[in-house]
Amino acid sequence: MARRLEKDSCWAEKKCVVLELQGGLATPNGLDRSNGFADTLKAKAPDVKLIQRPTEWTADMAADAAQNVLTQNPDLDGIFMASELMASAVNAQLKSAGRGAPVGDPSAVIRVAIDGTPQGLQLIRDKALDATVSQPLSAYATKTAELIELVSGGGKIEVGPREDGRVIDTPVGPQYQLNATLVTSENVDSDDLWANKIGK
Question: Which terminus in the chain has less CB density within 10 A, N or C?
């Protein structure tokens, strides 16, 4: 988001406004995604005004929040979505507000999401989403099996960095976080992405 905003006219004027559509903040994923985005944006783009709205992972709440914020901020520069499931509904609101320009158009609202589903990758191909963060779904399934075998054999999951990610301590026990991949138009067709392996 910060790299895309740097190319926007709002950057030099220090007038960029970004909407964050949060997931469920009562869930670890929702809280981590929100904190991760907000903290990183503040560090890399301290002059950007961030507006945060909860959605509880629902497209309807995301659409309502986008509509309300666009009404109050018609020159909105970017939208971060905690999940791609919000993207189609948000894009419909952008179109209704006259802000539905495709990615690459100078007047387009920058759109970034998380998940890396086949639908999200298609939105990137259709120039309806700038980027998404692909969570390695198939790798998580394999890693879960490995960890179950480890613990069943008396092993312990140690906290710390790994080649494929890191293990952090949480109130409910260790959490294995695998490395994710930023997907843009440049690598959206990569065979390394789990969403491109479905059906092959």
Answer: C
